[in-house]
Amino acid sequence: MSYIKFEKSQVVNLEFSLGREIIRTNRAGSYSSTTIVGCNTRKYHGLLVCPVDELGGERFVLLSSLDVTIVNNNKSFNIGIRKYKGDYFSPKGHKYIEDFNADNIPSRIYRVGGVMLKQERLLVYYEEQFLLRFTVLEASEPMKLQVRPFLAFRNIHQLTRANLAANTKVDFIESGIKSKMYEGFPSLNMQFSTKVEFIHVPDWYLGVEYPEEQKRGYDYSEDLFTPGFFEFEAKEGDIIVFSASTKEEKTSGLKQKFTKTVSGKTPRDSYINCLRNAAQQFVEKRGGKTLIIAGYPWFGAWGRDTFISLPGLAFARHSLVLYRAVLDTQIDKMKDGLFPNMGEAGNPVFNSVDAPLWFFWAVQQYIEHGGTDGWERYGAAAKSVLNAFKNGTAFNIHMRDNGLIYADAPGKALTWMDAVVNAIPVTPRRGYAVEINALWYNAVCFSLEMARIKNDKNFIKEFEKLPDLIKKSFLEIFWNEKLGYLADYVNDDEGKNIFVRPNMVIAVSLPHSMLDKEQMKNVLDVADKELVTVRGLRTLSPENKFYQGTYKGNQEERDKAYHQGTVWPWLYGPFCEGWLKVYGKQGVRKVKQLIFGLEAVMSEHGVSTISEIHDGDPPHSPQGAISQAWSVGEVLRIIELLETKYANQ
User: Fold this and answer.
1) Does 348 have pLDDT greater than 90?
2) Ordered structural domains, the chain, with CATH
3) Cα distance between residue 536 and residue 82, in whole Å
């Protein structure tokens, strides 16, 4: 029985099927994404979406979609689907779908009269190539298939309109054509494994709509260009492969290439295998660098997300080689003790006070899992971070006389709660932030631990008195004995902010914690009562007057809710690790309940992966990016922790 399969009654219900999306990557910057019925609902959807180095390395939608028409008994049945104004869908090919299966690769079976046609699609690893395999399962007599490509040739964040600048001409190549709509782009080579006829009928389809963009308050209508359509005969038993690629292919090898690519895939036939497959998709190897993409379909390689997600993503593949490649790439980007938070290679943004401190945690995880060269490789970078924070660096990040890290840059949100609306941080958290100082303490203690092993007397002499000072100051400033938990942040103007947020849980989970067992238990119990849900931890207690239980509306409205109650699955990582630290074997049952409870989302939103966020209010509907690196990474890390340390519980 298939693990991820949707029946006809589910697929034909567009309210159900349009909310379920598939993402596949080639591990080199390209991806393919659409809904399970093939109707694009986002501007980010497309069958072949590639980075274009000549245009700054950003991703561009080349092939948006395909219309496939079955011609049988002189009747034509178009099994494609697009949305137009007024909830009008045309064609309505979803009604011919018998089922959808994603156990190995995404496949749909269509039935039209006496014809049963199977479509399977994939991306070729490390190549900008989309392949679609047609298998004629049943056909009472020979028929024709017509395939019409819809091209966009535009940035993933933008939309296109019909225009006179577009090159509507095509060049004929082996069993297909190539098209390049604008200068600066690569050609899109569209070919088949069989002989085809191409009918050149260039046209624009106007007013294609993307309802997910409409919900998010963005422009949501665009025009797509089609150069014409391919036509070929087919009969029962025939297998035909279509290729869309930035390079011309030898069509005789397309079938074999498809089969070989499929054979190397791990089936998505279980919860764990879905997560392991999802983990691989965030890894991008390109231009001699190895990156972790924070989420699909619109995120880039963010420093903070990289360090938090890396342990789980790498250990899912038992790959210290991957671990080193990612850390080495990040170190090359360092500046003044900081790592880029976001931005492109030529324009990085360093506004992250926590990314450098999560780097220490990532190195700790590397060493714990067998990286014997951890301090030799990364000790110099670690020391540069410590010195930068101790002596002061950008964004007014500095250590005060009490040993704690203070950060305050007007108009900037420096922690992971970084939403900004109208140049004002929604959750500013300026001054002393609880998880920043917990991470700082952990970083100093870990570095001293390594320095003692390596007999680094100069480092020991400089930093050995800091842990006691940090701990004393931290408990004085953050711990609230009456409430039994930690302040979220403290600054010179406002004093202590005692909102119940998940950041204090990080102080419990780290290898070196300033809290005793009773304090840890109190923090976790408060978080468990007010923040923990079946999909992750809320970012703010529902008891708080600023709590927002749903994440919807335009960008400003969504940003205001982003860290004000919205649920984040990645926070299961620190909460579950802290819970196991405090409760040991007795805590295993609860942790398994939470972590394996997420299996339910494998058939929701981003099918076979975990979303970025969920609503704070039940039923905790999935929101944001359909596949997020630290959501997947932290769940995998806790599963690995359960398997290695609590295997018999």
Assistant:
1) no
2) 5-248 (2.70.98), 274-645 (1.50.10.10)
3) 34
